[in-house]
Amino acid sequence: MSTPPDGHRLSNAQPATDSAKDDAGTGCQPLEAPPGEHAGAERVHRGCHHEEDTWSTAGTWRQLDPRSIAMSRIVGAIAATVLTILALVGVATAWLTVSWPLWGIGALLCLAMVVVAIGWIVAWWWPPLAFRHARWRLDAAGLEIYRGVLWRHRIAIPAHRVQHVDVAQGPMQRMFDLGTLIVHTAGTQHASVELSGLNHGEAMRLRDLLIEFRGGNDVV
Questions:
Q1: pLDDT confidence of 97, banded at 50, 70, 90?
Q2: Is 173 part of a structural domain of the chain?
Q3: 111 within a domain of the structure (yes/no)
Q4: CA distances (Å), 119 to each of 2, 84, 122, 150, 165, in order?
Q5: Is residue 207 in some structural domain?
Q6: Are 6 and 206 a contacting pair, CB within 8 Å?
Q7: Per-position DSSP letters for 138-176, written without gaps between them
Q8: What pTM was estimated for this model as a whole?
Q9: Residue at which a domain ends, from 43, 63, 83
């Protein structure tokens, strides 16, 4: 088994009893495994960002960085603000340019307010739901991603199918020290798979490990 960049060797998953002991020492909380998988057979963590613990076991389901919730809410708030402005401009334009009765303008304004309210509700409540239903794990066989609130998706990326791996970081992600892992594969349905909401340092280590598991044949 290959050794990660930080010097910790990936090993087989520990029994559930050892997991409970480690969780008590690190403050990590149990994370429910995806449907159809027995969670007690391996260590499962939520919100663990300890350097020494991050790469101590293989095949461990892990969640995204919790800061991704705040970032997604800010992005959603910006989108909701733009939606609010557009709705108000639309109502004002209709009032000034169309000879609508007063009740028609009132109905249009109510409709615009409902749309804006839905936008703000989604911007605030959707990020925690998406965070709660997203997880990933990595071992020598490859990377596996599970995500989706309404429609659940489970994506398996074999290590031998990986062509090259990128880590992207936009302006908002830099503010929260987050990054997006982009895995380009060959001969699979998902030619390019993105895993966003990762700690940037963790995304870089994931990139290095995937390249190492691939055999160092990273095509850039």
A1: confident
A2: yes
A3: yes
A4: 46, 9, 5, 17, 34
A5: yes
A6: no
A7: EETTEEEEEE-SSS-EEEEEEGGGEEEEEEE--HHHHHH
A8: 0.68
A9: 63
